[in-house]
Specification:
Strand content: 15-25%
Number of domains: 1
Shape: globular
Number of helices: 5
Distance between the termini: 20 Å
Radius of gyration: 17 Å
Amino acid sequence: MYGLWKPRVLGAWRVPAAGPVIFAVNHSHNVDGPMLMGTAPRPVHFLIKKEAFAGPLDPFLRGIGQVKVDRTSTDRTAVTHALGILKRGGVLGIFPEGTRGEGDFASLRAGLAYFAVRSGAPIVPVAVLGSAERSSRVIPGLPPLRGRVDVVFGDAFQAQQEGARSSAWGGGGRRAGGSGRRTRKALDEATVRIQEHLTAHLTGARRLTGR
C-alpha cells in the first residue's frame, strides 16, 4: 500500500491497543480493505465475499487470516469464525454497507450490529477517503498511483446503550463476552445507533481531510 500510494493515517491512537475490536469501514473501492490491512495499527481479519477466494488469492487470503463468507445465505461457518476472532481478542473488519457503493454509510446491513451485540466488542469507525477518485488513473479500477489516500480512525463506541448490554472481560488481555439483548428490536436499535456514529465520523473525517 505504501509503495503504490501515499496513505495518510489519522487517529490510529484511538484504536484500543488490546482486546476485541470491530472496525466498521466505508466501502467505495476495491482497495479499501487492503489499504486498511496495510495501515491499521493492529492485524485485521476481514469478512470477504467467497468469490474473492479464487486462484492464488485463496491460499494468500486464508494465510493472512481473512474470513470467507457466502453472502447469498446465512453463513454459519463464517459467523462462528468471526466470533472466534473477537473471543480471542482480535480485530474484525466489516464493511457494514455489505458491498461497494458510495461509501457514505447510508444503508447498513444488520451484520455489524449482530457481531457487536453478540460479542460486546467496541466498534471503531474507519473512513477511507480518496480511494474512489477517478482522475489520472494509470490502471483502470484503481486509485491514481502515488495518490494520497486518507485512513481516518474514530473513537470507539458500544453498539448498545448502557443497561441494554453486559460484557465480561477476562484476565490478561480483554476478552469479548457480550450478553446484550439480541432481539430483532434490540438489533434494529443498535443499527440506528451505529449508523449515527458512523455518519458523524465520516462527516468529521471529510472535514478534517478536505475530501
